[in-house]
Design brief:
The chain is an alpha/beta fold. The chain has three helices and six strands, in the order ββαββαβαβ. InterPro entries: STAS_dom, STAS_dom_sf.
Length: 103
């Protein structure tokens, strides 16, 4: 998985992983996300336009990160979920009730 980031302004960053998010790489995504949270960013957007699958470890990392963002009065947004199986999984587990998901 490749991760690109784009800082929009002092409080907002877009993180764009590419490929699959699974047990072999979800820790590196978590570390990247936490580094921005610890640096003071309070709106973190994850662009899923290049993500083609995510497993339970990836979902777990997203939920853990959402909890930490919320504790710091921040906002986590997932946008551009292109893969239909990922969209279906997010809907099935009601992820949109916990994390803001924009398409």
């Amino acid at each position: 998985m490749e991760i690109k980031t784009k800082v929009r302004d002092l409080g907002q960053v877009v993180v764009s992983p590419a490929g699959g998010i699974d047990s072999s790489n979800s820790q590196s995504l978590k570390a990247e996300l936490f580094s921005f949270l610890e640096a003071g960013y309070r709106k973190i957007i994850i662009d899923f336009s290049q993500v083609n699958n995510i497993d339970s470890s990836g979902l777990g990392r997203l939920l853990l990160f959402q909890k930490r963002v919320q504790e710091k009065n921040g906002v986590l947004v997932i946008k551009n979920v292109k893969d239909s199986s990922i969209r279906a999984m997010f809907k099935l587990i009601h992820l949109d009730k916990v994390i803001q998901i924009n398409n």
